[in-house]
Write a sequence for this structure.
C-alpha cells in the first residue's frame, strides 16, 4: 500500500504544480494586442470576381450543352452588388 500512496501523492503534487503554473501565467502574463484585420486591395477583389464570373459562364455553357438547352446570358459583367 505505501507504493500506491506514494504514487497518488506524487501525481497530486504534479497536478497541483501544473494548476499553480497555469494560474500564474493567467494572472501575470499580458497578451500582445495587435491588429487582426488587414485591408484588401479592391483590385484583387475585382480580379477574383471576374474569375468567378468567367467560371460561372463556363459552367452554365457546359450544363446547357449537356442538356441541349440554349445558354442563358444573365451573367453580365455590369452587375454590381
Amino acid at each position: 500500500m505505501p507504493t500506491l500512496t506514494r504514487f497518488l501523492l506524487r501525481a497530486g503534487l504534479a497536478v497541483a504544480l501544473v494548476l499553480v503554473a497555469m494560474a500564474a501565467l493567467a494572472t501575470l502574463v499580458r497578451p500582445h494586442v495587435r491588429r487582426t484585420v488587414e485591408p484588401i486591395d479592391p483590385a484583387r477583389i475585382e480580379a477574383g470576381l471576374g474569375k468567378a464570373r468567367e467560371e460561372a459562364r463556363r459552367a452554365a455553357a457546359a450544363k446547357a450543352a449537356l442538356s441541349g438547352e440554349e445558354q442563358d446570358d444573365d451573367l453580365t459583367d455590369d452587375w454590381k452588388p
Residues 1-26 form one domain. The two ends are 75 Å apart (CA to CA). The mean pLDDT is 83.
